[in-house]
Structure formats: C-alpha cells, structure tokens
Design brief:
single chain; 338 residues; mainly beta; conserved putative lor/sdh protein from methanococcus maripaludis s2 fold; Elongation Factor Tu (Ef-tu), domain 3; OB fold (Dihydrolipoamide Acetyltransferase, E2P); 6-stranded antiparallel β-barrel; 5-stranded mixed beta sheet; 15% helix; rod-shaped
Length: 338
C-alpha cells in the first residue's frame, strides 16, 4: 500500500510541475502585436535609375557636288557658321550658307531668285557687298570673286551648284553621315547632310518593380561627369520587353543640360546615373505603416497600448514608415506581430 501511495503522490507532483511550468496557451482570436513608440522623424524615398543621353539628328541639306571627296573639314558635333567649309570635292571647297531654298542651280550674272538673295545676304554680312539683292549683278560677281580669293579656290565670279549648301538655320552642330568618307565618289543629290538637335534626349530607364514607384512629374537628379542636372520625369512608356522609359526634361520643358549640353558625347549612347525622388523629405511624428488601421468611414487610426483608437491624418509614407498628424510623439502604438 505504501508503494501505491508513493506513486500517486509522485504523479500529482509531476502534474503540478508540468502545469505551472508550461506557458499559457493563447486564447483563440486574441491578436498578437508589439508596441512601437511614435517618434519625431523624417521620411523620404529615392529610386536609382540608369539614365541615357543620345543626340537626335535631322537632315538639313543635301550634297550637290560631284567628284571625289578629298577632305573633311568638320567632325561630328562641330559647330559651323555661315561661310564655313564642310568638305572638299576634287579639292574644291563646299561651303555652308544660311537659307531655306536649297542649292539647285549655278549662280552667275543675270540669274535672279531667292537663292541669289540668300547668297548676297551672306556677302553683305561678310562685307563683300553693300546690300542684299535677288538679282546676280556685276556687283555681286565682284563680291563673289573677292570671296573666292579669300577661300583660296578658283576665282570665277560665279557659284557652281555644288559649291554651297543652304541650311535653314545657322549656326548648327553638324553631323555628316557615314557616307562622307575620304576617297568616296559623290554625286549631286547624295548624301544628305545632317545636324544634331539643339539638345540630347535624356531618358530614365526603370525595371518593372521600379516603375511601380515612379510617376510623371517626379523630380530627377542626373549626374554626368562633373555636372549635376535636375529635371522632371515625363510620361512613362512601356517597351516590348516590359522595361519602362521616361524622358527627362528641365523645368517648363527646357533641355535638361542647358549650356552644358555641349559636354555630352555626341557619338553613340551615353550612360549617366540618375536618382528619382519618389517621396520628398517630410518631417513629423512617424509610425510604422503597419500600425495604421483603416476604418469603415474612410478615416485612419492607430491603436495605443491600452487598446484605444486614435484617429490620425497621413501626411506621407515611404519605405514602411508614415508621417502622421494628430498623434503625440511618445505614444505607444500597436503593430501586428506573429
């Protein structure tokens, strides 16, 4: 009997130890949370971006000289002014002048028209002629002779069709096509003469994930060598590979790089670094976004340590934190936990 009693007492002691030593079970439906103290702080967010810069080109004139290209006088991106030599064909210079009517015929005494007017405007600007005229007079012939002597070309007093090319606006940054190669045979009508746009096209490139964080109008900071430019994102354009691109421009649609655009390489695609400000810095009382509770009436609240709800107004949120109004710093708020 005493053995049985001892076993019963031992069993009771073991049961008591197991009950009081084990943690209490969580009541079904009881929410688990941790407490976080609302504190004064600042939030902001930026997204890094690859930025590219390319120079668009457009046709401004067409070569009208025939013969062998013997010399190139300009390189891609060089700025040319009225009277500058672009290249030489059979060692005869081809000069760029300003005008909207393309060179289409030889100019000599007796010829009249808008192309003559364009030529004589140049001669007046360079002080070879007293006044511009639409008619190729003996005075124009004398002015052309003086100009030809200055160029170091054959002095005839007349202008061959291939001696000049007219471009609508000068100065311009020229971009001769790859067809302009030393030794190549040229003919009237080919190849085209192109010019760079006044500014490069600057674009931000984003992955699918990054694209969910950025939007049109967000500020962008672009670094190019020693230069730092700030601009705004344009509309987002989705490519066939799901990549997203957006043009970056300066304020009010101006070029991003302004006077410093000339420092952007004119060949190929330049890769720059960029940063999009997806959330401007905002200071105030901060809480984790996970602490925010949406109420049925559309308002937002947090729950304090005692379980009381405090209605708040969200001013900004980024990277899991929110700046809110109507909540004192130091308040302990519940954040759902595991």
């Amino acid at each position: 009997m005493w053995l049985v009693a001892a076993l019963m007492v031992g069993g009771l002691i073991g049961w008591a130890v197991s009950v009081f030593a084990s943690p209490p079970k969580q009541v079904a439906g009881e929410a688990s949370y941790v407490l976080v103290t609302a504190s004064s702080g600042q939030i902001s967010a930026k997204v890094a971006s690859v930025v590219t810069a390319t120079w668009p080109v457009h046709q401004v004139a067409v070569n009208q000289a025939s013969g062998t290209l013997t010399r190139l006088a300009v390189g891609r991106g060089d700025e040319v002014h009225a009277g500058d030599v672009l290249y030489r064909v059979d060692e005869r210079p081809v000069v760029v002048l300003e005008g909207s009517v393309p060179a289409f015929r030889a100019l000599s005494v007796g010829v009249e028209g808008a192309d003559v007017k364009q030529l004589t405007r140049f001669l007046v600007a360079k002080h070879y002629l007293a006044s511009a005229t639409s008619k190729y007079t003996a005075a124009v012939e004398r002015a052309v002779r003086a100009w030809q002597r200055r160029l170091g070309t054959e002095v005839t007093g007349s202008v061959r069709r291939g001696d000049v090319v007219f471009a609508k606006s000068l100065p311009m940054r020229v971009a001769l096509k790859s067809d302009f190669r030393l030794g190549v045979s040229l003919s009237a009508g080919t190849p085209a003469i192109e010019a760079l746009a006044t500014a490069p096209v600057v674009s931000g490139l984003f992955s699918e994930r990054q694209a969910t964080q950025v939007s049109e109008g967000m500020p962008v900071r672009v670094e190019s060598g020693d230069h730092i430019w700030t601009g705004l994102l344009g509309p987002l354009i989705v490519g066939s590979d799901s990549s997203v691109a957006s043009r970056v421009a300066g304020s009010k649609g101006a070029s991003l790089c302004g006077q410093e655009c000339t420092d952007v390489p004119v060949k190929g695609v330049s890769q720059l670094s960029g940063e999009v400000e997806v959330q401007a810095p905002v200071s105030g009382v901060t809480v984790p976004v996970a602490a925010l509770v949406a109420d049925a009436d559309g308002t937002t609240a947090v729950i304090d340590a005692a379980g009381a709800r405090h209605q708040v107004v969200i001013r900004a949120q980024a990277r899991g934190m929110a700046v809110v109004d109507q909540l004192p710093a130091g308040t302990s708020v519940r954040v759902p936990g595991k």
